[in-house]
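ok posting inputs for the flavin-adenine dinucleotide job
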Amino acid sequence: MQIDVAIIGGGFSAVATALNLMDCLSPSNTVAIVAPKKGLGRGVAFSSPEASHRLNVPAGRMSALADRPEHLCDWLTREGTGFGAEDFIPRRLYGLYLQETLAEGMRRVDNGACIELIDAEVLDCERLDDEEQVFYLSDGRRLRARKSVLCIGGTPAGLPLPMDKIAPEARGHLCLNVWADRWIERSDLGDDVMMLGSGLTMIDQVLSLRARGHRGRIHILSRHGLIPLPHLVPRTNPVGPVLEPGAKPLSAMMRTLRDAAARADDWRSVVDGVRPITQALWQALSKTEKSRFLRHANAWWNIHRHRVAPDMWDNFEEMRASGQVTVTAGWLRDVYEAGGKIRAAYLDRHNRTLRQMSADWLVNCTGMERCSISKTPLLKKMSARGMIDGDGLGLGVAVDQDSRLLASDGSPNASAFALGPMTIGRFFEIFAVPDIRVQAANVARLVARALM
Ligand SMILES: Cc1cc2nc3c(=O)[nH]c(=O)nc-3n(C[C@H](O)[C@H](O)[C@H](O)COP(=O)(O)OP(=O)(O)OC[C@H]3O[C@@H](n4cnc5c(N)ncnc54)[C@H](O)[C@@H]3O)c2cc1C
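and the output
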């Protein structure tokens, strides 16, 4: 098969790329989206069937299209959902919006390019020359493409322990991937649960338990013991950015941010004010400063930047106040089975003593932030061929400012792009929809120009 553009992946990044390509390619162009049909359009983020799993950004800022900010809200109104711009809608509803928007785009008669869906996984890829790549698909076919956009997302983080350190008897009590393993359906309402990680993934799991009427205790362990903070509704207006790219060393920047937040009527206005220049701030840091930020400040940044809906936060805090939920800061050291329960040994962050907790379940909520080349078979093969390189920070793949993949010799590949969380090393603020949709529009424009 020969096509003009191959989009690899079926999550938000792929949908946003396809929607933009529809507008800027000509009808003679051919595009294929290659991804498993199951969950197509939703990706990991918007596949959850649970009503309690909601967006962490209000609907008014979640349009799939950067140039049509009202697109999602218009759809919510047309569908008679009763939701508006300020609502944190269920993620499954947002996933439906993405699927329907893609399907509608593909039906449009004035469509630009002809878009085809291929229900397959890409197993390998070879670069033939500057103008062509060939993809080897799980259905045995080969797909030749002049341009490609890699949108395969991140990899779920594993437990911070090698699996061979976990006793086999303990594994039946373990959920390693909350998006693939519906462990809650196997649990009892009175079970004690340990969750490792205290970010948005943990909040989802706790609120799922709450929705079922869970009665057992929930122990949360994470390195810092920090919980995402709530949005304020209505939102306070962002203030002008209090930081300037490259102006100060990292430690001084963090101090400026803290001081401004303390002086502001509401700290969110300072964090939101920095948002438009977060990519530029990140790119102005040296590699050493980036690593230092990831080690020491990222956990604090995340709880202020990636917030939860106020009512979700209230529900979580209510469970904490009642004693059902406890949060501990520490490092997991060991996991084993004892007396029919799973037991975790951890080093307490505050007094540096080794302590233990036990439960019926240990649930890995350490999230999905990084795109690991070594754990992603396709990327591993592309890396072995020198077609891609890591970003040097262990976050994802190396790309240039236009999101072109960089080969192992550092040269940009004029025909192959990557999008979304995979490019976090370059852009940092590229995990959420409002940022990816801008990247997708830019990449689609570059692809269209190159095909003219
Ligand atoms: C649980 C969760 C909740 C989130 N909530 C929000 C939110 O409320 N608001 C917000 O703005 N952002 C949110 N985000 C972040 C954001 O929406 C995601 O970063 C974004 O959806 C990433 O999309 P993606 O397409 O790059 O990756 P993914 O969604 O991970 O999709 C990757 C796709 O690639 C496919 N794929 C993988 N390997 C191959 C292969 N070899 N061949 C073919 N296909 C392949 C997969 O099947 C999948 O379809 C959330 C993220 C998560 C994980």
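notes: The chain has a mean pLDDT of 94. The chain has twelve helices and 15 strands.
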